[in-house]
Amino acid sequence: MPTRLNEAEITEALTRTDGWSHRGDAIERTFMFRDFIASMAFVNAVAAEAERAQHHPDIAILYSKVTLAFSTHDAGGLTVKDFAGASFANQACVAAIARGP
User: Fold this and answer.
1) Residue range 29-40, pLDDT digits in tens
2) Range 7-99: architecture per CATH
3) With contact defined as beta carbons under 8 Å apart, do 33 and 96 qualify?
4) Helix, strand, or coil here: 16?
5) Which residue in 12, 38, 57, 77 has the fewest CB atoms around it within 10 Å?
6) Is the pLDDT of residue 95 over 90?
7) What is the CA radius of gyration of the chain?
8) Which of 20, 26, 23, 10 is nearest to 89 (CA)?
9) CA-to-CA distance for 41 and 34, rounded, in angstroms?
């Protein structure tokens, strides 16, 4: 099991993870897409990576808006796994936007 990060480590990791906010025991970010299909393509990419990594975010989909929240529940807070998932999501967002219509 990964080690839970302390507040200083979380703050430092957030400086390298654009767009993410620390909320309680999680980090979260909302992504905006041109339409529902683009949102779902992004969610599917995130889901595939989450399954590969065996570390799954909470996902909320509202048409063209997708909110992800990562937390390592068995560690009782944030770990490096959460920031790895967030970094992947940021890259997947860029890729989804680059694909265009």
Assistant:
1) 999 999 999 999
2) 2-Layer Sandwich (3.30)
3) yes
4) coil
5) 12
6) no
7) 13
8) 20
9) 11
